[in-house]
Specification:
Elements lengths: L9 H9 L12 H7 L6 H17 L11 E11 L2 H13 L6 H4 L5 E9 L4 E8 L5 H8 L7 E5 L6 H9 L3 E5 L5 H9 L3 E7 L9 H11 L7 E12 L5 E8 L11 H8 L1 H13 L10 H21 L1 H9 L14 E4 L1 H20 L7 H12 L3 E4 L25
Parallel strand pairs: 1-4, 4-5
Antiparallel strand pairs: 1-2, 2-3, 5-8, 6-7, 7-8, 9-10
């Protein structure tokens, strides 16, 4: 499926992938044959491979991975994926079979868009989980579903869109740790800001309005938090810090967390923690622009789910294999060109170029299986991959911020970020 995400025709891509030297036409599958064969691969297959690779990666590299006070920090954020019309209709049929009520905005949308939710490791740049569902499901529901992939040493990181007492109560009942940026228009947040304290531990009483949620949300509350009712309290820790924006204005941020141990999780660490949350935004941009996750290789809902999980698998493979190369780039302070000349800016891996190189490695891997190439060496391919991507660097400019004028907002894939050409 990853081979088909290119600007070439299907026939040409299949020939290049399976019969690159035109030695025997029998090696090249037809479009119809490929379309039938792909239905033998369930979307859960790449998802299972991805989970297995991540488990092994975190187990072997545990001592070398970056964390927040010993906690693996996973940011949750939502996005939208635009499907093909046929895929969207098939998804609606699945929901109707499950007797799920669909509002008009979902059953008759202006565009066939679904909701995606990503669980992203903000320190080690891997995607631990991804969900793709209809817009009838909320981001809070998907955040709770992500908890199936969590361990005891994980920390969830949210933005203001996840500010909800019922959600925090459910996460607390499930034993999950979280940090969320608070909205400033809430009563107990206003009182905290007026106190001028840098941090405080409070007990917030749940009101009836906090539990005025959808029936599906109420079912989640009952399942994970029992009989949560008005008058119950949630113990929270509030942390504030100030930071200047691009215009030089001082902005006050308030973080809400259930990390109540002040010594183990000091207040000064939280500022840098929330700044890291932006990595999930950059990750989504990488999936949608560099990875071109919306360049569907088929028109069905089945193929769309395949594409999503195969893209995440490609991304994680690239990140895991290139981890040492990326760290070497970031640690280098002397220019490669001039002797002893210090670098003005640090460097990091160009993920677009790395994804393009990884696609090439995957094509060669497929070809080695087809032609039974005994001389194909995976270790050598990995070493060549690392040597190649070491040539592609991107500057890190701290504090750089300026507005970008988008001339064509309808353009989905930008030439300077494409990895499939």
């Amino acid at each position: 499926m990853l081979l088909l995400q290119s600007n070439h025709s299907y026939s040409n891509v299949l020939r290049l992938g399976f019969n690159v030297d035109n030695s025997n036409s029998i090696y090249t599958p037809s479009k119809q044959g490929f379309s039938q064969a792909r239905y033998k691969i369930k979307p859960s297959a790449p998802e299972a491979i991805n989970n297995s690779l991540l488990t092994d990666f975190y187990l072997k590299e545990k001592q070398r991975l970056d964390t927040f006070c010993g906690l693996r920090t996973l940011a949750v954020d939502g996005t939208g994926f635009r499907l093909e019309d046929r895929a969207y209709c098939e998804m609606l049929e699945e929901l109707e079979k499950q007797n799920i009520d669909l509002p008009v905005s979902v059953s008759e949308p202006l565009s066939p868009t679904i909701r995606g939710s990503i669980l992203h490791d903000v320190y080690n740049e891997t995607v631990v989980d991804i969900k793709a569902v209809a817009n009838v499901f909320s981001e809070q529901e998907l955040a709770i579903e992500h908890c199936d992939q969590l361990q005891d040493s994980d920390l969830l990181l949210f933005d203001r869109g996840y500010h909800a007492l019922w959600l925090w109560a459910v996460l607390g009942a499930m034993g999950q740790k979280f940090v969320c940026r608070a909205r400033s228009d809430v009563g107990y947040i206003k009182s905290f800001l007026e106190s001028n304290n840098n941090e405080d531990i409070i007990e917030v009483k749940i009101k009836e309005s906090n539990l005025n949620v959808s029936p599906r949300h109420k079912a989640l509350i009952k399942k994970h938090a029992g009989e949560l009712k008005a008058g119950d309290t949630v113990k929270l820790r509030l942390i504030r810090y100030e930071q200047a924006n691009e215009k030089g204005e001082l902005i006050t941020y308030v973080m809400v967390s259930n990390l109540l141990d002040l010594e183990k999780y000091p207040c000064k660490e939280f500022k840098q923690l929330y700044e890291r949350r932006w990595r999930v935004e950059e990750g989504i941009k990488t999936h949608k622009i560099s990875g071109e996750i919306e360049r569907w290789t088929g028109t069905t809902w089945f193929s769309a789910k395949q594409d999503i999980h195969f893209n995440i698998l490609l991304y994680n493979l690239t990140r895991m294999i290139s981890m040492d190369t990326d760290k070497a780039m970031r640690a280098r302070t002397v220019s490669k060109k001039g002797e002893g000349r210090l670098l003005k800016y640090c460097r990091k891996l160009n993920i677009t170029a790395a994804l393009r190189c990884m696609r090439t490695v995957m094509v060669k891997l497929v070809q080695s299986f087809i032609h039974c190439d005994d001389y194909f060496c995976v270790e050598q391919q990995v070493n060549d991959f690392c040597d190649t991507i070491a040539q592609y660097e991107t500057l890190i400019r701290p504090g750089r911020s300026f507005s970008r004028k988008i001339k064509n907002s309808a353009k989905r894939f930008h030439m300077n970020c494409k990895s499939n050409t």
